[in-house]
Design brief:
Elements (H helix, E strand, L loop, with lengths): L4 H9 L6 E5 L3 E3 L1 H13 L3 E10 L3 E3 L1 E2 L8 E2 L8 E3 L6 E5 H6 L12 H11 L3 E12 L9 H23 L1 H24 L3 H18 L9 H17 L1
Parallel strand pairs: 3-9
Antiparallel strand pairs: 1-8, 2-9, 3-4, 3-8, 5-6, 7-9
Helix pairs in contact: 5-6, 5-7, 6-7
Length: about 250
């Protein structure tokens, strides 16, 4: 798992011979009835490459995330969902994929350690002419951030990797110059915010903005995804502890 969940999925995909492959994150669960319906919908049309349920997130309720054609970032839907619908994004938290199609496009991008890998996969699948279907009447339960106890270290890794991965997606599909402009914009935006939250002793927002800033900086200098750096994370924790003591 330290090398990335999607890399592990790809290793499993290589040995699968069934028509469909199911991905379920460690912090999610789904019942057999929902799985049977996902399978039935996938069988109906060869152009349907992915079928996913609605996601019930603890503390948030039933959530749907959507992405416009050609986009690489998903947003939370702010409209009513009625019945099965075709989409440009399906979450990889719980999803059934057509094995042949998933192998054909190379599975998940293993350069992404964590976050946005399902956005990138959805983009490649739809660009290849495949359909993605969400079944809102059948739900999976997603524990999400409650699956692990939150800490400065985990929040740092989350925001660092989120910033890096979205910039990587932009570089891969929109070009290096486009991604660099976005990264520079992110650096210029987050630096003053980090300074402000340091002065106001807001640990949570200081961590978020510092991590996002560093994720963008590391992307610009060509660093790989942030997996684990104990020395750096001790420094981060010390900085935030200092802010707490001052406050």
């Amino acid at each position: 798992m330290k090398r990335g969940y999607r890399r592990a999925v790809n290793r499993g995909l290589a040995s699968v011979n069934t028509p469909f492959v199911l991905t379920i994150s460690l912090d999610a669960k789904i019942n057999l009835k929902a799985l049977n319906n996902m399978y039935a919908v996938g069988k109906e049309d060869d152009t349907v490459v992915c079928v996913a349920p609605g996601l019930y997130t603890q503390g948030q309720g039933l959530e749907f995330w959507v992405m416009e054609p050609g986009e690489l970032r998903c947003i939370k839907a702010d409209f009513e969902i009625g019945g099965h619908f075709c989409t440009w994004f399906t979450s990889g938290t719980v999803a059934s994929y057509r094995t042949e199609a998933l192998k054909e496009i190379g599975g998940f991008d293993e350069n992404i350690f964590v976050y946005n890998e399902d956005c990138e996969l959805s983009y490649r699948l739809t660009q290849s002419g495949y359909s993605l279907i969400i079944l809102p009447d059948f739900k999976a339960h997603h524990i999400n951030s409650d699956s692990t106890r939150r800490s400065v270290r985990l929040n740092w890794r989350k925001d660092w990797n989120y910033a890096w991965s979205i910039l990587y997606l932009l570089k891969k599909h929109k070009g290096l110059n486009f991604a660099r402009k976005e990264a520079i914009s992110l650096v210029l935006e987050r630096a003053p915010k980090a300074n402000f939250y340091f002065c106001t002793l807001n640990v949570q927002r200081l961590t978020r903005n510092c991590a996002t800033f560093m994720g963008a900086v590391n992307f610009l200098i060509g660093k790989n995804p942030h997996r684990e750096n104990k020395r750096r994370e001790k420094i981060i924790s010390s900085l935030n502890i200092a802010v707490i003591i001052i406050s």
